[in-house]
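for the writeup, i need someone to sanity check this before i put it in the appendix. the sequnce is what the collaborator sent (i think, or maybe the updated version? ugh). structure was predicted straight from it, no edits. if anything looks off just tell me and ill rerun, i have time this weekend
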Amino acid sequence: MNVEPRSPLPADEVWERLDMRRALAARDLGTVFRLLQKHGTSQRTIAALTGMSSSEVYEVLRGRRVMAYEVLCRVADGFGVPRGYLGLAYDTDTATWLDANLVPAQTRTDHEDDARGHALLAYAAEVTVGTAGELSPEWASVPAAATPLPGQVGPEDVEQAEAVTAQLRHLDYRFGGGACRDAVSAHARWVDKLCELPSRPATQTRLWIAAADVHNLAGWTAFDVGLYTVAGRHLALALDFARQAGLPSLTANVLYRAGRVYLHRKRVSEALRFFQLGQLAAQDSGSRRTVAMLCANIAWTYAEMGDEAQAIIHLNRASDEFSRAEDTDSEPWVQFFAELDVMALDGMTKLAMARTNEAHAGPARLALERSVAERTDVMARSLAFEQGALATACLLTHDSQAALEFGELALGQAHRLRSRRVTDRLAPLRDLSLGLADRGPAGDAVRDLGRRIEQVLVS
């Protein structure tokens, strides 16, 4: 007699049983495994699907708790259930699966839709005439649902993706990464989905560029709020998409941002290497503006390393390259870098050198005074950086009153902007303020400023 082989996993409805859903939500894998065994899944099959050994499965069945994130992910993926069922990452795939499976299709009837429509209309009427009470729990939250994807990606889809990235980039400049990071991450996931869909070759290349650009921005906004590991992953994806697109100017920009992550964290050797690799890619691209940006950051890094000679050489080259840049040499990811930024980096480099040679404090102050005077709120975060640096330069030139003025402005920006970097960059000003020897009224006020910066830094 022929016997039809049993499936190693039970039917989908088993995963929707209340006892199974509760066990998954509680990460009670012992109960999950026992329920699977009741439906014909062997211990050996469970081990094979989850990547566990048979002895590990046996221990779980006897009560051993599993809390390791990696193991829980393997369990979800092995059984083909959304990770969200185990309280893990709730991503777009999970939302799509739930939307398709959590509510059986036969219950989503026209009658139900009509009833919901009437209920919403009734509540709208109550709100309009002023008789509405609290919103019904049914309407108080919006269930997750994936946005429908196009059947094929066309130029208009890529144009929309580019436009959204551009707007998010402006929000980052003006309000800090914390104001838009979640939106940037969501947009990056959407563009990733578009990259998986069919498209013409020219559209595909443009889409890879859009994906590299948005992951570059996602890494930058993650860095801005102190999520360094997340930033690194986005920047790696940006590099990969830029490689597929064959666009060295974008590769150079991603490497520049990676260098800034490491420079901010005082890991100057790694920062220098990223900037040097970026400089090579920038030279391959022919973009003088990008070369100037990399040279200016290399100068700053050398100054942090105490190498004044190399710092000055690269400052001079940055100025020379920028002076010869074409007006058309300004892709979206590098448009921000203007003459004002060359000036600001000149100031930052000389300020770093002033720590060991006070003769650089005056030139640093002059460069930063000019950049602060010309900077607008469109680039509020850059303005905050430069105000804090200028206050530090003023203290080094023994001008407590000016230091207090610019320091207060920088601290006010730190309170307004959603940027951990702005706060972190106030640390040198704090150190100088708290150690100020001036015992006059201005000196007391500067020390009070230092104490208030300290409160922000430790919060």
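Confidence is low (pLDDT under 50) at residues 1-7, 102-106. The CA atoms of residues 8 and 42 lie 7 Å apart.
thx in advance!!
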